[in-house]
Amino acid sequence: MATTGHQPAKTQQMVKRDRGMFSMSEDTAMMKQIQATHSPDGLEVEVKPLLTVINEILRRATLPDNTGVINLACRCSSGADAHSTTMAILNLVSSQKWEAKLVTSLAAFAVNYGEFWLIAQLYATNPLAKAIALLKQLPDILVHSNSLKSRFDAITNLIKAILDVTKCVVEFNELPSQYISDETPPMSAAIALIPTAAYWTIRSMVACASQITSLLGMSYEHMTATTEAWELSSLAHKVRNIHGHLMAQLTLCHRHIDERKHDDYFRMLVRLFETPHLDNLKILKVLINSKDDPLPLVDGTTKTRVGIEVLSRKIVLLLISDLDLSTEELIILTRIYQEARQRTDTHYEVVWIPVVEKSMAWNEGTKQKFEQLQSSMPWYTVHDPLAIEPAVTKYIKEVWHFQKKMLLVVLDPKGKVACRNAFRMIWIWRNLAYPFTTAKEEALWKEETWRLELLVDDIDSKILDWISQEKIICLYGGEDIEWIRRFTTLAKSVAQTAGISLEMVYVGRSSSTEKVRKIVETIMREEISHTWPDLTSIWYFWARLESMLYSKMQHGKMVDNDPVMQEIMTMLSFDGSDGGGWALISRGTAELARSKGDTVERSLKEFPEWEKESKQIGFVPALTDHLHKLHTPEHCSRLILPGISGGIPEMVVCAECGRPMEKFFMYRCCTD
């Protein structure tokens, strides 16, 4: 094909006209021309198998270090010719849907492309291929292939952009119509853009074909011109831009579809929990194993993967948390679980379901954190937290009210929810709360009275021994070490004067872990009194009190109608004070006296005033009477409750005076 010296300038003008001819804000007349070619007959074309073959051809039809394409049986020497050829192709495939137009055109393109490079690849070894190559004037191109690298690279890049747009348009056609309609905003935006995408994609095929055709018979001097490569790069930029717009809409479409699927899954979950079942497997599969993994769980004892059938017809406790688990809670729950394994009257399983948000970055660090937690648990755990359906996470948050604190949801052997959070009763009564139903919790409370055994349980076996020995026992707390020194010295002196056996135990505070740790170390070093060197025991003491409060509230109990509730509130208000001390002094099971630090300290200083009474009615009853005499209407009680969704009562009355307490919001970040 002959060319003139004015070709580069002419081509640049042509490309400028092309770029302005049909911008992304498409000219109305041009859009009408394109739409006028579109008259689908409703016949479905199976494009995916065809696209697979096309992709294989485009991938394999190459020369070493080079890639090129043959023409669409057309010769285009100007922008106007390229446009006309594109419109002619659109008219030729007018009866097809847009994705079929693209795939059909690309198939014709790929046939010529494959034929061209098949001949090129066999040229050196096959006489027939060599003869055809000579007639097609291929030898010059093959000899100078290195010099044509920039043009071949430009063709390669444009072909990739063509393929990307074609695949994207095909994917739009495969979106499930039951979850997204053509009128849905992201879909309607894509439908409006697809005719433009089809035009420029087919026009790019025409340009690629024209470039290869123009090389045949061209002199070496004209082969090395870079203008043609620049034209192809310009088209590739435009097609990639179109692809970017389409992909943005496709992402929105997939998001819309996922939301609809999640909504369907959520509604299905709600229906499942409202429907009676013969066993628990259907419920557990939906919660844990929606992907039909045959081994979705890890056995915490053997560390091997197991099927969900191991939970069949058993009471299952679902441990729900994020990856920021409380070490103390895990330690105590592990002890309780392992105790249950030794009993013959408790048969239940625990399964950890970690709540991992899809927006959370699941990197190597996150994965390692999950695996460390998983390896520390003796019960069953979910093998892959990312396999948990988002709708399950939504259900856990909206129906079971999970926020930050761990939940322990109890499912009975038929999959029915027996308790939405069994942590409270498990912290209070441990395995005695089995089978962890709300009815069992209520029955246990009916048997309870305010006594030291309820307060300390088996946190410290020495205390239980002292109770049976009818010793005077003093539990005290706070974080003022000077008050602790004064109070314990005074208490020991009074005990000696009264001739009583006194045992004292420091139980710390629910917060300020580092301060409490230092105080514990000081108490042990100076041998001030007994204490719990394991800070988990101190945490558990206060966690049980807090659990008692919420458990009572859950059953509708308040200070004015429940003596145990009043004592719980009083103890928690001691803990909510500004670090000041407090003391609870008891003898045996029934005799208990408690007060804030300054009041109990004053009572002990005034022991001579009630010493006679203590010999008559007993030390603890006499102390209680004297504390009542010192009581004044003026007081300031604080009760600090952690923010648990669905658990904070609207009104709390003061344990001292019975008036409604003011409610404040407190935000705390404590790295202590």
UniProtKB/TrEMBL annotation:
GO biological process, one term: phloem development
Domain Sieve element occlusion C-terminal as annotated: residue spans: 440-671
Top-rank taxon: Eukaryota
Record-annotated Sieve element occlusion N-terminal domain positions: 25-65, 71-277
Name of this chain's protein: Protein SIEVE ELEMENT OCCLUSION B-like
Originating species: Escallonia rubra
